[in-house]
Amino acid sequence: MAPHKFHKNFTLNSFSFTCVDELLSYSKNLATENQEFLKAWFAPEPFLIVQTSGSTGKPKPIKILKQQMINSALATGEFFNLKPKTTALLCLPTKYIAGKMMLVRALTLGWHLDIINANTKPLKNNNKIYDFSAMVPLQVENSLEKLNAIKQLIVGGGLVSCQLQKKLQNCSTKVFATYGMTETITHIAVKQLNNFNTIYKTAFYKTLPNTTIYVDERSCLVIKNEKVTNTVIFTNDVVQLTSNNQFEWLGRYDNVINSGGIKLQPEKIEEKLSEIIQHRFFVAGIKDAILGEKLILIIESAVANLPKNIKDKISAANILSKFEIPKAIYFINTFIETETGKIQRKATLEQIKTNSTS
Q1: Distances from the Cα of 260 to the Cαs of 10, 17, 131, in angstroms?
Q2: Which residues lie below 8 Å from residue 150, measured CB to CB, with a gap of 6+?
Q3: Average pLDDT, the chain
Q4: In 152-265, which ranges are continuous DSSP H helix?
Q5: Cα dihedral sign for 185, 344, 61, 96?
Q6: Closest to 206 (Cα-Cα) out of 239, 233, 243
Q7: What does the DSSP assignment read for 265-320?
């Protein structure tokens, strides 16, 4: 499928089209960002300029070949067995790669795609059944009562908490966490989160077709997929390889805390704490004269709204090793976020120095 064409089975909001000009004319009825993306997609240039999310640094524009986006769409279609006439819902903003790729998949694979305005409750007014969709965790959390309307769902843009994963176990929807980034044109690996009566029963991410993975000297994931990127990508994600196409994600290398010579991985501690903390939170390290770095817990809430025995709850749960127990707890009303809703840890950590209590 060439970038200047679309699949004969493609429909958008129940409308079919005979040519690109007809589709572009219809797109004037869509949100501006959707219209602009379709114009750019069918323009003669072989590439698009895409903005990164900024979750691990400043957002930046990068150049991606349209053929690579098509290759990514084909890999997703193959992995999830998504044939022409697949019904799909786009409820993410097309400003970023995840939303763009839902459109590219539909155009390339011949899906019947519906677009709604991106919001935190995408299924609130829905009365249709869809084969496939993509959401961020907050959208999933707000859609649990109606999630059965989607047969297969991929979740990206943030970690799925243990609490949310537990809520998904009684849902008929097959829900998958995704691993990827703008540079890999969204996901290059997925992990099933529920309905473990299938071949996907695993706690690990499984790579999509044409992807080679290995680790560097830091135990960080290295990705090679010539179909979607021109370069080998060295990530800052600490992983443990479980096979040549599966891995367990442990956390970010740049988040590792060295406390008294003990290396602590914040994301693994957070996974354990999510069993008992209802609010959004994260753990981090701050300078300490004795330990070098001291492990602290930051919770998004006014102190008055939380039980005063939070420290006792953590201790009583007996889920942390003695090195993983936070030395201090801070409360902050609102985390600093990226435009896509990801927590900016470093910026939030700076903020608590002046307007938080412990």
Answers
A1: 58, 64, 50
A2: 89, 123, 129, 130, 131, 132, 133, 173
A3: 90
A4: 162-167
A5: positive
A6: 243
A7: -HHHHHHHHTTT--S-EEEEEEEETTTEEEEEEEEES-GGGS-TTHHHHHHHHT-S
Q: Domain 256-355: which topology?
A: GMP Synthetase; Chain A, domain 3 (3.30.300)
Q: How far apart are CA 278 and CA 282, in angstroms?
A: 12
224 near 211, Cβ under 8 Å?
yes
Rounded Cα gap, residues 77 and 110, in angstroms: 10
Determine the residue type at 195.
N
User: Cα Rg for the chain, rounded, in angstroms?
Assistant: 21
Helix ranges (DSSP H) in 42-198: 66-80, 97-109, 137-141, 162-167
- Measure Cα distances from 278 to 72, 95, 310 in Å: 36, 31, 11
Q: Which residue has the tokens 């930051």?
A: 298
In the CATH hierarchy, which top-level class contains the domain 11-252?
alpha beta
Q: To which residue do tokens 């090195």 refer?
A: 323
What average pLDDT does range 42-70 have in this prediction? Answer: 84
**Long-range contacts of the stretch 123-129 (C-beta < 8 A, 24+):** 123/147, 123/149, 123/150, 126/89, 128/87, 128/89, 129/87
Sorted by where each begins, the domain ranges of the chain are 11-252, 256-355
Task: Please identify which residue in the block is written with the tokens 């290396």.
Answer: 263
Q: What would the pLDDT profile of 313-357 be if each residue is shown by its tens digit?
A: 888 888 999 999 999 998 888 898 877 677 888 889 888 866 644
